[in-house]
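Input (structure):
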């Protein structure tokens, strides 16, 4: 595809976004009393934003023009933030983290009814990793060296070769060596013969100055013409959409853009610096005069720690300004503020996109930088520099803290797994069951969506994390083997986040005493903020909130973090891309009140249903190298594995598909019966155990014990009603 194609995708997405925003202004202008209709409106908006998200992400990841990428990035962050806002409204309206919108998808005619609704899958923007790829690779290499030197990680053992493989490798290397030697020998013979012919010719004719000049002219003109031809070919290839030409143009444009930015920045400082300073001084004076008119006196000048005069120009909502005016008992001030129109902060992200809407770029093959846009950005940057002073970093280097935490096993290496590796199918009957008052079991695709919404998207974008609804802590609860730890590692992989392990079993005897614990958390917090994004993981987190510590675990002191965790979360601000993630398979062992107070979002991960088991069996077998034939019934395996978790299925596949069995597969295809014995040797999640889990977890979330159907409805709420749960418990 050519840049024109992705420009068109961007333009259409922007039009869809404008249409959607206008539709929301019209639909949400008046309160809606019908909850069902209100939810349908929110669901339609949610799906529309997801469609726009898909298109913007596609355009952003393929366009090479850096200024266009920056403009799309602003809109993309705004759309992600809007998705999270709509999701919050849907949760509050339905009192549930899980929503079933297959009927909405059918109404919008996104895909035929029986196909997978891929339009509702949340994409992971590539720029989360791409923009900081070099730094992430360097950090990973440093962590590997630290762990290797500390003896916490060993080098991967070299796989031994067979005798035949060793002979073949030696033969290939020797033949290659002989070929190189022969080529060098023939080159020497050719150069010697050429030198002799040239010497003989000079002896016969003698040197001619005109011939030498002609030779030089011929070489120079040939060089110039080749350069022109290469440039013409490059422009033609870019015009035709050839990938290699576009990539070369992108690299040249990036280097040229950096030089242009530096040159224009210096030029602006010389020519417009004084004007900018005078303009800002006039604006500050006008601001102080208006404040005096409203509150009756001049306001205090902001301190340097508060941002200096930059704090005067920061945008504030009426709610932020109202307490300030109350302190002066100014009725006039309060009246004026109440008359303000409250714009959504996300709308400001769309303003700069109009720059590119009406431009004719038919001849802009090289996709160069626009100097005027660079000037506008540098003017704004210089204005900010007038207000703000950069705070110097502490001399206790982050590298030393990073190394200490890694050597102590608190900072660990995340496993390279993606969210897409968490295989699971959609719930096709969700709305149908809802209509007959039956609460459907959440699907694994629903879990995947929640992890993307509450974990990956906010951590991946600074703008989204600061402006979207803030989630500081996330709890993943479910039976052993449903993939809770895998999801934690997937969050880190998709966002390039550091992973800190504060599980009770991991911090035993580390940093002993109250002071040691405070120092450890201070170090974790400092490194996590400085090298954000970061994930702080607490495995078996119910142990931190034990009702009664078992005697066998008393020496481990599992409740060390109970009182300090709320303070840890309080220290995290909207600008800190740090997420606390807890995992538990026994939430009923924890005390209810502190447990729900720490974890803002609680997601129950169920065992896989039939559709997810079918997809998982097929994926696990093919990924391991197995081949599915008529002798292997995936449908039969999916039915027989009812009650087993994803971990049980994966272990059964690994037990069967050994290296020897894979070699035998050509003459002995896989059959269904082979997987039954290793599957039967594992413990499933029995119905009685699952019912007990539901009831007990329902008690954790609500503070009361209900019958199973009601409890499941409470379970799907997540922690949307944690306040109600605590109130119920207090009663």
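Output (sequence):
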């Amino acid at each position: 595809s050519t840049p024109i194609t992705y420009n068109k995708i961007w333009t259409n997405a922007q039009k869809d976004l404008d249409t959607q925003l206008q539709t929301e202004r019209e639909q949400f202008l008046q309160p809606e009393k019908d909850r069902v209709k209100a939810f349908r409106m929110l669901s339609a908006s949610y799906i529309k934003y997801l469609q726009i998200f898909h298109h913007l992400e596609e355009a952003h990841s393929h366009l090479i023009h850096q200024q266009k990428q920056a403009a799309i990035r602003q809109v993309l962050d705004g759309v992600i933030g809007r998705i999270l806002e709509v999701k919050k409204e849907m949760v509050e309206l339905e009192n549930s983290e899980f929503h079933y919108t297959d009927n909405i998808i059918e109404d919008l005619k996104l895909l035929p009814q029986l196909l997978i609704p891929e339009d509702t899958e949340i994409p992971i923007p590539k720029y989360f990793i791409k923009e900081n790829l070099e730094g992430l690779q360097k950090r990973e290499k440093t962590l590997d060296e630290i762990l290797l030197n500390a003896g916490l990680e060993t080098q991967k053992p070299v796989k031994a070769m067979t005798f035949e493989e060793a002979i073949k490798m030696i033969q290939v290397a020797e033949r290659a060596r002989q070929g190189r030697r022969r080529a060098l020998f023939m080159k020497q013979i050719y150069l010697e013969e050429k030198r002799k012919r040239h010497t003989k010719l000079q002896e016969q004719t003698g040197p001619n100055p005109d011939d030498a000049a002609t030779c030089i002219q011929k070489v120079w003109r040939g060089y110039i013409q080749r350069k022109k031809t290469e440039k013409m070919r490059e422009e033609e290839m870019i015009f035709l959409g050839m990938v290699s030409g576009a990539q070369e143009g992108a690299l040249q444009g990036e280097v040229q853009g950096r030089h242009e930015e530096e040159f224009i920045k210096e030029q602006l400082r010389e020519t417009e610096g004084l004007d900018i300073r005078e303009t800002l001084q006039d604006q500050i004076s006008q601001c102080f005069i208006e404040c005096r008119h409203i509150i009756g006196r001049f306001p205090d000048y902001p301190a340097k720690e508060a941002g200096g005069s930059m704090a005067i120009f920061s945008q504030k909502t009426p709610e932020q300004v109202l307490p300030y005016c109350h302190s002066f008992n100014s009725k006039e001030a309060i009246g004026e503020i109440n008359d303000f129109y409250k714009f959504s902060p996300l709308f400001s992200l769309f303003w700069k996109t109009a720059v590119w809407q009406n431009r004719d770029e038919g001849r802009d093959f090289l996709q160069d930088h626009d100097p005027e846009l660079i000037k506008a950005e540098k003017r704004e940057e210089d204005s900010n520099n007038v207000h703000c002073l950069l705070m110097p970093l502490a001399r206790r280097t982050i590298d030393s803290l990073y190394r200490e935490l890694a050597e102590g096993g608190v900072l660990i290496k995340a496993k390279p797994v993606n969210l897409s590796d968490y295989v699971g199918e959609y719930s096709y009957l969700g709305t149908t069951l809802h209509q007959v008052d039956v609460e459907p079991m959440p699907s694994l695709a629903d879990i995947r969506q929640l992890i993307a919404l509450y974990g990956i998207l906010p951590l991946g974008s600074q703008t989204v994390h600061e402006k979207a609804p803030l989630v500081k802590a996330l709890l993943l609860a479910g039976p052993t083997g449903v993939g809770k730890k895998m999801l934690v590692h997937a969050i880190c992989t998709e966002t390039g986040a550091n992973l800190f392990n504060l599980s009770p079993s991991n911090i035993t005897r580390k940093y002993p005493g109250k002071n040691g614990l405070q120092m450890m958390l201070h170090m974790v917090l400092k490194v996590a903020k400085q090298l954000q994004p970061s994930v702080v993981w607490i495995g078996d987190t119910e142990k931190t909130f034990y009702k009664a510590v078992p005697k066998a675990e008393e020496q481990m002191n599992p409740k060390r973090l109970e009182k300090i965790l709320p303070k840890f979360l309080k220290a995290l601000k909207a600008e800190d891309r740090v997420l606390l993630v807890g995992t538990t398979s026994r939430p009923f062992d924890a005390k209810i009140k502190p447990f729900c107070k720490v974890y803002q979002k609680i997601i129950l991960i169920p065992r896989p249903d039939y559709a997810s088991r079918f997809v998982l069996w097929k994926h696990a077998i093919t990924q391991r190298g197995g081949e599915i034939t008529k002798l292997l019934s995936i449908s039969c395996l999916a039915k027989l594995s009812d009650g087993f978790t994803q971990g049980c299925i994966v272990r059964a596949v690994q037990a069967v598909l050994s290296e020897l069995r894979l070699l035998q597969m050509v003459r002995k295809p896989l059959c269904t019966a082979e997987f039954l014995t290793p599957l039967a040797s594992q413990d499933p999640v029995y119905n009685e155990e699952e019912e007990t889990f539901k009831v007990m977890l329902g008690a954790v979330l609500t503070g009361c014990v209900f019958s199973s159907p009601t409890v499941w409805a409470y379970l799907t709420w997540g922690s949307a009603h944690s306040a109600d749960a605590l109130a119920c418990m207090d009663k």
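Notes: The chain is about 60% helix and 5% strand. The two ends are 63 Å apart (CA to CA).
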